[in-house]
Amino acid sequence: MLSAEENKLFTSVGAATPLGTLLRRYWHPVGVSEFVTSKPQRVKALGEELLLYRGQSGEAHLMQLRCAHRSLALDYGRVEGDCIRCPYHGWLYDASGQCLEQPAEPEGSGFKDKIKLRSYRTQEISGLIFGYLGPEPAPLLPLYDVLRWEDGVKAIQLRNVNANWLNHVENIVDISHLAWLHGHSFPAYGAKKVTYHWDRRDYGADNVMLVDGVRDDDTHISCYGFPLTNRFNVPPVTPGGEQVRTLLYRVPVDDVSTSLYFVRFTPGEKRMLPVSVRQEKLGEYKHLDSDWWGIDNSDQDRMAIEQQGIIADRVNEHLSASDGGIILMRRMMREALAAIAQGQDPLCVIRDPAKQQVDFGQRSLLMDQRQREGNYAGGFGRAMAAVD
Amino acid sequence: MLSAEENKLFTSVGAATPLGTLLRRYWHPVGVSEFVTSKPQRVKALGEELLLYRGQSGEAHLMQLRCAHRSLALDYGRVEGDCIRCPYHGWLYDASGQCLEQPAEPEGSGFKDKIKLRSYRTQEISGLIFGYLGPEPAPLLPLYDVLRWEDGVKAIQLRNVNANWLNHVENIVDISHLAWLHGHSFPAYGAKKVTYHWDRRDYGADNVMLVDGVRDDDTHISCYGFPLTNRFNVPPVTPGGEQVRTLLYRVPVDDVSTSLYFVRFTPGEKRMLPVSVRQEKLGEYKHLDSDWWGIDNSDQDRMAIEQQGIIADRVNEHLSASDGGIILMRRMMREALAAIAQGQDPLCVIRDPAKQQVDFGQRSLLMDQRQREGNYAGGFGRAMAAVD
Amino acid sequence: MLSAEENKLFTSVGAATPLGTLLRRYWHPVGVSEFVTSKPQRVKALGEELLLYRGQSGEAHLMQLRCAHRSLALDYGRVEGDCIRCPYHGWLYDASGQCLEQPAEPEGSGFKDKIKLRSYRTQEISGLIFGYLGPEPAPLLPLYDVLRWEDGVKAIQLRNVNANWLNHVENIVDISHLAWLHGHSFPAYGAKKVTYHWDRRDYGADNVMLVDGVRDDDTHISCYGFPLTNRFNVPPVTPGGEQVRTLLYRVPVDDVSTSLYFVRFTPGEKRMLPVSVRQEKLGEYKHLDSDWWGIDNSDQDRMAIEQQGIIADRVNEHLSASDGGIILMRRMMREALAAIAQGQDPLCVIRDPAKQQVDFGQRSLLMDQRQREGNYAGGFGRAMAAVD
């Protein structure tokens, strides 16, 4: 259990909070390439309202949402070259946030030179736009395996969860829930006796699950990329096909909602599928008669995450042996908070280019077994099949 | 008038409040038999979220909504026999709330023995499921006359009011409003000069109204069952028929909304009508051109209760002679609060089986007169006629 | 910039606040003649819920919304003559708020004589009903030119803005925004170099804009009527026609929403158009492809006012030379607050009948130029044309 104070500390993501300060030391997706154009848009991440647009140079720009003059939201403005113009009085800002024009000011006024919006670094890779909201020098963007892979079908899915980010990250490092929450979809471990352990890695941690009576090869490992990412596989789209390699970024929108960016990859002919977007509503889950819980496995995690309470009550939780991953993850968060309090980089920040390429130790042999039985088509599998 | 502090005291129903503690000393309806099945459901009463389901034994079970492990709402779980299983990690609880299984824990772990959900007593009678949320030993459930009667047509109606419970209970003990709010529907007392008095009874109090110039026989009495119930009659469904005996339970959902359970009975052939449910919206009332106020009499009370303000401002009220019932009811609430503060049973708690059967002294002769005039069909009358 | 405290002071309009007290020293529109009938209605102004109805005498009456007895909202009551009757127990109040009847009280009770609702003065002119919510003696209602004019077509438009009143008043005294926010609709000054100054007047202030390189005659002046009014012209409805004289009242509904009453006048045959009402939603603006900002000019101001934030963050604003009007207006507000703190009338309160008729120094020659070019039809112009 956590104290009420620590639960508050761990679940508050605003710029002025300790955890918000910590999360700002990492790169986060803030948009998808397909949707970012010269029409400026408003995005919200880590409790902060931001402006995102693509300049004439092709580069994506990220900055504070509101004009420094009188707070007008600049997503109502106009992109000119790589600059943004406020519609109220025509103030013009370049991509660094520097004010270049104040048309109604007297000739020769130097006032514009003193005005600069907060602007943020961006990087674009694999269909995602990442932003960095922390202090300089910015660390390197971890080049996770799925981001780098090119020879195959790639698909981005944008989803949301109506809950605090911590509910979601606790679901990653909680490996034993697979046997029950997703147990009907995956008979290989459904309601089976499982054991588990967690191994710290450079990128975060591995969540390892073993199923009693199944040969050692069939170990299931999902990987946690500290602080907000994970890697896992889902069953093939077609019988005998390859598992779908999945990288999942979570971005806290604010303290009560979270954006999800799935990047899916299957080896094969190089192709990028259109981005799929779904706006999920709290308490509405896709019904499935044949599942134990009456919920399609594509919505089971969201149900569990939202139905713990939008911000779970950790004062009254009772953690058990199977929650070792949660205990480890919280310890890593405390270590990271301590590091920045001491002026050091927190864990998993990469500054050495030799370490920028990150491969995960993910294994999903149990799913292969499931697949060999020939009777599974997961939510994503169906979606990809439909597109094909 | 009340002080702001006492208005707050009287209108706060949560478990940690004095009035919430008092109300937990009584049985309250928490569901209707027809709708409680092996599909677990979430109900809210007295500010508390609860789980309600029917086990294989046929018994209804009531307990805290959330799993002790990590707070998942158990209405997303599965009933197994008389137990409930959490969908997240498969923890299984029996009807007493005792944890029986924690599938992911190591063999031989005794952790489950230490885990017990708060569970609550239930009783089922006359189509209603009652719950008791207070300390042991539980008192007896008052067997009000309408609950016990069997030889006739019975109908349960489930409604809601978008206001605090106290607005509603004040409407019960306020007998003189009949002459105005409902005056057009009931010419026998509509806009007539009335007198009134209140008599304390074992079950609560009688609200007595007399109409100037009408013979003494035509006294109108409606009965208040402390703390949240009342008994009154409504006109017959068919000309010359019997009045409809009505018992009305109010259950505070939270501080700003109240559930209503009507139980209607008419002597005749034994029959149970299907439960009728309506979800009422604040400020939307059934329009009736011919009424003084333009509102159908089935919605007049709800209008008055909601339009005092969701929690009425009693600091600025001006009680008058006709508000003797309200003054009496508040005195009874204060007595009851004082009793539990001294470790005693509050008023109208029944522990002697000889006193469990409660008959009300209700009389509605004025309505008979109305009925003799042959031109009335009330909202409930119309509903019952439609069903017939 | 303002301190957080002063921003709060300037944006809080409730009866108990300093600015709410100040604004209560002036008359404000509370309804339109066409819609005020014997059916009582609820209106909200300056954070206060009010009852408005027209009595048999033809006079409009304004008083506190809730019955003194038990707080029932009297808009559910019934007008009798010039009185209002509460539907709950039939209490009857005259137009002064004096209670005349309490039908359920004992014969001879003097309780009703002690009960009086707060009632407020009203005046009806030019299709508007004005109310005065301040202390006696009430000042005179300023008879602005548009109100007095009779020989022509008059039209009232009722709109709302989902923002605090101060966002809106700052938009009045901010003359330079015309060149950008409305620049595409008015090429005479669109994106032109402008200069500006502000002149205090008995009625408030004139906002003067000059466009570089345009002859001196073409000065544009819009007038600010302290504290919440302004006067400006819009282009003619038909080519070669007269400009439409516009008077605009703002009424703070509460701290986060504002009502707008437009009174439009064009010289010609005497006629009153039907009142036009539109309920505007936050963030929904009429799209226009051909405008710089993609928003029809009838919605450009509302966009700017709402998209500063519902209550603009003035702690982080950066006022510039073009914001002289805002600085002046805030100074006037501070003077007015100081005056009432010293027991004096605040500025622009009129008590001398010789000064009650107010003419504005409004000029819009640039719009005439625009009109001469023959290619403009504004939103209001289109609306009036449609009606014609």
Folded structure, characterized:
Three copies of one chain form a homotrimer. Chain A is of the alpha+beta class. Helix content of chain A is 18%, strand content 30%. Chain A contains eight helices and 22 strands. In chain A, strands 12, 13, 14, 15, 16, 17, 18, 19, 20 and 22 form a ten-stranded mixed beta sheet that branches. A six-stranded antiparallel beta sheet of chain A has the order 1-10-9-4-3-2, with no helix packed on it. Chain A has a four-stranded antiparallel beta sheet with strand order 5-6-7-8, with no helix packed on it. In chain A, strand 15 (220-225) and strand 16 (229-234) form a beta hairpin. The longest helix of chain A has 18 residues, at 324-341. Chain A is globular and about 80 Å long. Chain A starts with a helix and ends with a helix. The relative contact order of chain A is 0.17. The A-C interface holds A 66, 68-73, 76-78, 86-90, 102-107, 109, 111, 115 and C 170, 176-177, 179-181, 183, 191, 193-196, 292-293, 295, 300, 303-304, 307-309, 312-314, 316-323.
